[in-house]
Amino acid sequence: MKNYFKYIIVSCLTFFALSTFGQGLQLATMSDVGQVNLTNPANMPDKRFYLNLSSPFTSIGTNISGAKVYEIPNGLIPGFIDLDALTDNNSIDINVSNPIGFGFKKDKWAFNAHYSPTISTQVSFNQDFIGFITQGNAAYTGQTLNLDPRFDLSFYQEFGIGVSREVLGIFNVGVRGKFLLGTLNINTLQSNLALTTSDDIYQLEAAANYQLQLTGLPQINTLDDFNSIDSISLSLVGNNGFAFDIGVTMNVGEMLHLGVSVLDIGSINWENKSYQYGLSSEFTFEGVDALDFLSGSNSSNLLDTLNFDNIVNLSSNSTTYTTNINTKTYITARLKLGEKLYLNGVLRNEFTPNGIRTGFGVGAQKQFGKILNVGAMYSIQNNSFANIGANLVLKLGPAQVFIITDNLLPVINQWQVSNTNVRLGANITLNDKEKNGN
């Protein structure tokens, strides 16, 4: 148990140090891969048929206002957060999806279907929480810290069917319906965690009051019940939801292609193995310095002085509740500059419980023959202005592979960048049509 708490702290700090954020801006402008349809259901890819065999689309990101990462030689953690520049609206976002699907065209119609297991996680925290984690309570003697971290997680299966139609020769309109099958959810309703450190003997008083909704685990009535869970049997029925995507594209002459889409308008109703938990506690223990704790010199102080079974009051009852999935919007533009040379622009917004995530990018793509397509994009994401990404598409017969990264700078210096991710994908494509330049 002692090591578990320490591993959690180190893991959180590792996420801070990674400071990565991937929004998939380039994918929205890559008309030569079938996955472009996932960013706008009106997009008709340049293939008569494609089978999507892409690898997981993984995004691990932070939204820490004014944060900088500094490497500490020989330390257990990569660095400190610049506390003076922080606000109280910070989060770590983890999103993982693995879409597998297919699509085909018939005259003016296009159809697509996909399946995607999806994990969406957000941990929200304020300036006091980061200060306590990185500096320990000794730096806040005589003060009360209001930590109040929030935890929100959803794991669900997504089944989507979409259709698009060419209208008047210049417009494509598309819609996609999605059936969502919820598996696991943690939803924070109320989070209050206050820590007061005495200014004479570093005595620490803690008061906590949490309200959580949780689906997918057996009901827990005591902390002993939690410790006795040795495996997780996730529900595959009973937590259903629906969502839809809408989009439109327009061709302005033969040079300009525009697109607008709204994705993931919907929610999941959690009712199978769904419980609401109340957790409250008040206790006192001697203060510890977080740096000493992480280095191992003071790792036994905290948990040895606490008896959680006696100081934590836990209540639970069955419930049903609904959570929204994060809605996203895309606005794209693709301008033909010359022979198989294109200038791209994309604006993306994601509406999360902790605010709007915005990304904007401008890039170019060049096709070399029928085999190779390469591109690059400069983007502004997560309050970061140093993002230079690249993409490559290679086609060998019916097989197509592609790689996308939003930022190449981590190759030079991982610790001084704010955004990085890499996405790999593979498709089987048949009966390519002759490109019309859009």
Characterise the protein shown here.
With 438 residues, the chain is mainly β. It has one domain (2-432). The protein has 6 helices and 21 strands. The chain has helices at residues 2-18, 127-135, 223-227, 290-295, 301-304, 308-311, and strands spanning 47-52, 57-63, 90-97, 100-106, 109-125, 144-146, 150-167, 171-197, 203-215, 240-252, 256-270, 274-286, 312-318, 321-324, 327-338, 341-352, 355-368, 372-381, 384-396, 399-405, 422-432. It has a 14-stranded antiparallel β-barrel. The longest helix has 17 residues, at 2-18. The protein is elongated.
Tell me the layout of helices and strands:
Elements: H1 2-18, E1 47-52, E2 57-63, E3 90-97, E4 100-106, E5 109-125, H2 127-135, E6 144-146, E7 150-167, E8 171-197, E9 203-215, H3 223-227, E10 240-252, E11 256-270, E12 274-286, H4 290-295, H5 301-304, H6 308-311, E13 312-318, E14 321-324, E15 327-338, E16 341-352, E17 355-368, E18 372-381, E19 384-396, E20 399-405, E21 422-432
What are the key terms here?
mainly beta, 14-stranded antiparallel barrel, disordered N terminus, 438 residues, 21 strands, disordered C terminus, 10% helix, elongated, 6 helices
Strand content: over 45%
* Most strands sheet: 14 strands, antiparallel, barrel
Mean pLDDT reading: 76
SSE series = HEEEEEHEEEEHEEEHHHEEEEEEEEE
Q: Figure out the total of helices.
A: 6
- Strand order within the widest beta sheet: 1-4-5-7-8-10-11-15-16-17-18-19-20-21
The total strand number stands at 21
Q: Pairing-aware structural class of the strands and helices?
A: mainly beta
For the terminal residues, how far apart are their CA atoms?
58 Å
The gross shape turns out to be elongated
Count of individual domains: 1
Low-confidence stretches: 1-23, 66-80, 414-418, 434-438
Radius of gyration: 24 Å
